[in-house]
Write a structure and sequence with these properties.
The protein folds into two domains: about 10-135 and about 315-435, nicotinate phosphoribosyltransferase (Alpha-Beta Barrel), CATH 3.20.140.10; about 195-280, Alpha-Beta Barrel (TIM Barrel), CATH 3.20.20.70. Helix content is about 35%, strand content about 20%. It has helices spanning about 10-20, 50-60, 65-70, 75-85, 115, 120-145, 160-170, 180-185, 195-200, 210-220, 235-245, 260-270, 290-295, 305-310, 400-415, and strands at about 30-35, 45, 90-95, 100, 105-110, 150, 175, 225-230, 250-255, 280-285, 300-305, 320-325, 330, 345-350, 355-365, 380-385, 385-390, 395, 430-435. The two termini are about 40 Å apart.
């Protein structure tokens, strides 16, 4: 297994070194992952990446190569400590596919200060990235209103981020990915046919030969394939596609121009040619707003890329990893706009009998399981955190990717209707702190 131990920040190891010298490395601590606020315009967030965090924890080992790389960064005593490092604490967290809101204790890490503090960067880098992608994808899926979406953003991001993005997008309800590594590693369905380069490759000295390109693609992939019809002239492209493939052609794709206008024109042309079952796929810098604007148009499938996998469409989830308790004593940061709530916590979600959620309540983690929560009489109350790691060992059988995908689909149905809107507004439900301890 490849080590994940250096997927961390320099200051985490210098803190470790200082704590070892000061004798505070073993103090019992509680760290929490949460977001102080949602990105501008968002009404909810989606937890994603929990499974990848657990995978990264399995590989968080300092072997000979990692120790050699750290010589000169920390002292010899710290290197000796790192060479024997194994996380031995506990981790609880929201399951993948769960909704989160400002203040939600998305993940809680309990252990000695030293063994827990050095996990900050690897945990945050995974949860922030995957949750941002999943949150954006969920909005796109809602905007698509049941029409399939294919994720095709691999060429717009880092090669490994592309794999994680495809996984997070699938968790959020996207139907397929163009990324074959995501298909191999996570079982995400893959899809794809041809780019403009394929059509252009059939050009010759006497001009283009779009029909030959279409014929070659059909010979290789069958009549159910999708033909890209906007390399030259769309109207001619559609006519060529049907003349070559016949009226049973699977789909045509439009990748540029005014997609709404073009979709209407292409639908009419296809119907006039007798290809009434041929679907229309549109792509080209689509985000949730563009998808929503096309809802009334004859579009069958959306292809999304740049706006899903880059910061413009998937703003950071803004999660932080904060120390909230030391040796049973609540501690909290008081800096302006960076406040935290001290003490270990657990969270419950409150819903009406119809299933619609009304609030999230955050309690002290020592509150009894049957604690009475004021204002919840007659309402359903559900615990949100699940055990993930005990004694440094992953809890058996965490939810699978498919189970998490189903969980999110159900969770989105429980949001108040305004929570699914794309307009700016407050979080879909409020967060209430109950019996908050005083912090030092």
């Amino acid at each position: 297994m490849t080590s994940t131990a250096l997927l961390t920040d320099h200051y985490e190891l210098t803190m470790l070194s200082a704590a070892l010298q000061a004798g505070t490395a073993q103090r019992s601590c509680v760290f929490e992952v949460f977001a102080r606020r949602l990105p501008d315009g968002r009404r909810y967030g989606v937890v994603a990446g929990t499974g990848r965090v657990l995978d990264a924890l399995d590989g968080f080992r300092f072997g000979a190569e990692e120790i050699d790389a750290l010589r000169g960064v920390v002292d010899a005593d710290t290197l000796d400590w790192l060479s024997d490092y194994r996380f031995s604490g506990e981790i609880d967290g929201y399951r993948e596919g769960e909704l989160y809101f400002p203040g939600s204790p998305i993940m809680t890490v309990r252990g000695g200060f030293a063994e827990a503090v050095i996990l900050e960067t690897v945990i945050l880098s995974i949860l922030n990235h995957d949750s941002a992608i999943a949150s954006a994808a969920a909005r796109m899926v809602s905007a698509a209103a049941g029409r399939p979406i294919i994720e095709m953003g691999g060429r717009r991001t880092h090669e490994r981020a592309a794999v994680a993005s495809a996984r997070a997008a699938y968790l959020a309800g996207v139907d397929a990915t163009s990324n074959l590594e995501a298909a191999r590693t996570y079982g995400v369905p893959s899809a794809g046919t041809a780019a403009h380069a394929f059509t252009l490759s059939f050009a010759h000295a006497d001009g283009s030969d779009e029909r030959a390109a279409f014929a070659a693609q059909i010979d290789a992939l069958g009549v159910g394939t999708t033909l890209l019809v906007d390399t030259y002239d769309i109207t001619t492209g559609v006519r060529n596609a049907i003349e070559v493939a016949g009226t049973s052609l699977g789909a045509v794709r439009i990748d540029s121009g005014d997609l709404g206008v073009l979709a209407r024109q292409v639908r009419q042309q296809l119907d006039d040619l007798g290809a009434t079952e041929t679907k229309i796929v549109v792509s080209g810098d689509l985000d949730e707003y563009a998808i929503a604007s096309l809802r009334a148009e004859p579009v069958d499938i959306y292809g999304v890329g740049t706006s899903l996998v880059t910061g413009s469409g998937s703003p950071t989830a803004g999660m932080v990893y904060k120390l909230v308790e030391v040796d049973g004593v609540p501690v909290a940061k008081r800096s302006s706009r960076k406040e935290s709530h001290g003490g270990g916590k657990r969270a419950v979600r409150v819903a009406r009998a119809t299933g619609t959620i009304v609030e999230e309540v955050i309690l002290r983690d020592d509150a009894p399981a049957d604690v009475r929560i004021p204002g919840t009489d007659g309402l359903d109350v559900r615990d949100l955190q699940i055990p993930l790691v005990r004694g440094g060992v992953r809890v058996a059988a965490p939810p699978t990717l498919e189970e998490s995908r189903g969980h999110l689909a159900h969770a989105l149905v429980t949001l108040p209707w305004e929570g699914l809107g794309l307009s700016h507004g407050d979080p879909a439900i409020p967060t209430r702190y109950l019996n908050e301890p005083e912090s030092r």
